[in-house]
Every structure is written in structure tokens, then in C-alpha cells.
Amino acid sequence: xxxxxxxxxxxxxxxxxxxxxxxxxxQIRAQLRANVYKAIDCxxxxxxxxxxxxxxxxxxxxxxxxxxxxxxxxxVFHDFRHSLSVFIPEASLGRERRSRNDVASDAGLSDVxxxxxxxxxxxxxAAASRQMDRQEGEQPQQQRQQQ
Length: 147
Prior knowledge:
Layout: H1 2-21, H2 24-40, H3 44-50, H4 53-60, H5 64-77, H6 81-90, H7 100-106, H8 118-146
Helix pairs in contact: 2-6, 5-6, 5-7
């Protein structure tokens, strides 16, 4: 009987390792967290009206709602359904949300690419702007050296 127990333990370990490696276990954990959160806060309207402690701080900031919408769009774009299902009620975004183009426009993007999230496009634009600033800062220095 001792050998059978050892085989079962080895099988459990192998299955657990395989599920972890394939990312399935992480998905199951995320789904479980999302469902636990839904069970605790089953009435989304109640969550929206009372909010969570972090939510009130976020929504009081000047750009809080826009930031929450950008994060939600990032989750949607990358198909993070479980994270989104937890985030939406926590951020009090509700089921009806603004269009991707409206969010992008308010975030300062004039042209929205379809191959990346708004957040990724904002980071790329900020990086490009920094690069341009660096290059402009080098030009006067190069001109002085040439004189």
C-alpha cells in the first residue's frame, strides 16, 4: 500500500507542475479570485454607490476615471477577463463604458492604432517625446562645438 501512496503523490506533483507550467493553474486562481469577489459583492450597483477605499481616492483625482478606463481597456485588449471582472466593480466603472476612441481621445491620442492597447500607445508616445527632447537638447550643444 505504501508504494501506491507514493505513486499517487508523484502523480499529484506531476499534474500540479504541468498545470503551473502551462499557466492553467494561474488562470484557475484568477477565476477563483474573481468569483469570490463577485460572491462578496454580488450587487454591482451597491458596489458602485459605496465603492471601495481605493476607489474613492482614485475617483477624487483629476484624471482618476480616465486612468481607470485606460486600465480597463488594457484588460479588454489583452483578454484579461478575470482581472477585468474584479477591476470594473472595484473602480466603479459600471457595465456601460465609453468607446475606445473616446477614451483614447481624452487621453491625448489623436490616432488610435488597432494593434496595441491605449496604455501601450501612451507609453510609446511618451518614450518618443522623451527621445525627441533628448535629440533637441543635443543639437544646440553640437552647434556650439562646431563654432
